[in-house]
From TrEMBL:
It comes from the Bacteria. It comes from Cellulomonas cellasea. Residues 40-93 are annotated as: Disordered. This is Uncharacterized protein. Residues 43-62, 78-89 have a biased composition (Low complexity).
């Protein structure tokens, strides 16, 4: 064995420079091996605190009871007090449909007087002007009337309600002369005059 390793061992001894180089290389090799061993030891060692922290952060949340979040889009519940107040108001409020019917009947009475009080027209034109505003029975009753005999007046205000219900009504229509009393009826959804009279003054409303 010595004849194999002898020359290698004797080689550094031939010169101080060779010996120092060999020693330096040996020291560097030892330090490198020590650094590698230290890194391996640190990577393998795990502290108990780190293990506990990692375990707690990776634990599945399925075991925890979930708390439902409040529904912010839900509409607010109406209170009983507000509902009762609304119901009370509706109970005492006027019916718009009823008011509209009264206004329509008033307009029909005024429009009939405006067409009827035309002594300046000939009979045929006068009868034609009455047709959209009077019932067939009233037109028949006025068929022989000479328009020259009707008062030459014009409507001067809102008809005064004497009596009215869902199907008929009585109104005193103010004019530039006497009041004209007009009876109206609801025929096929249209208010038409069914009779006409002169009256000195309007009467107080008798209610529906």
């Amino acid at each position: 064995m010595w004849h194999l390793f002898g020359p290698i061992v004797r080689w550094p001894l031939h010169s101080p420079g060779r010996l120092l180089g060999v020693i330096a290389m040996a020291v560097a090799a030892v330090l490198a091996l020590g650094a590698i061993n230290d890194r391996g030891s640190k990577s393998d060692a795990v502290s108990p605190e780190a293990s506990a922290s990692a375990s707690s952060t990776t634990r599945s949340p399925s075991n925890e009871p979930s708390t439902p979040s409040p529904d912010r889009t839900a509409a607010p519940q109406s209170t009983g007090e507000a509902s009762s107040t609304s119901a009370g108001t509706d109970a005492f409020s006027e019916d718009p449909a009823a008011n509209s019917a009264i206004v329509a009947a008033q307009d029909a009475a005024a429009e009939f007087v405006a067409a009827w009080a035309r002594p300046d027209l000939d009979p045929a034109t006068w009868q034609g002007g009455l047709a959209p505003h009077a019932t067939p029975e009233l037109r028949q009753a006025l068929a022989d009337t000479d328009p020259a005999n009707v008062p030459a007046v014009t409507v001067s205000g809102q008809p005064v309600q004497v009596a009215v219900n869902a199907e008929a009504g009585v109104f005193d229509v103010p004019t530039t002369g006497p009041f004209i009393r007009v009876f109206v009826e609801l025929v096929d959804g249209i208010w038409l005059a069914s009779d006409v009279q002169s009256t000195a003054a309007p009467e107080a409303a008798a209610g529906g």
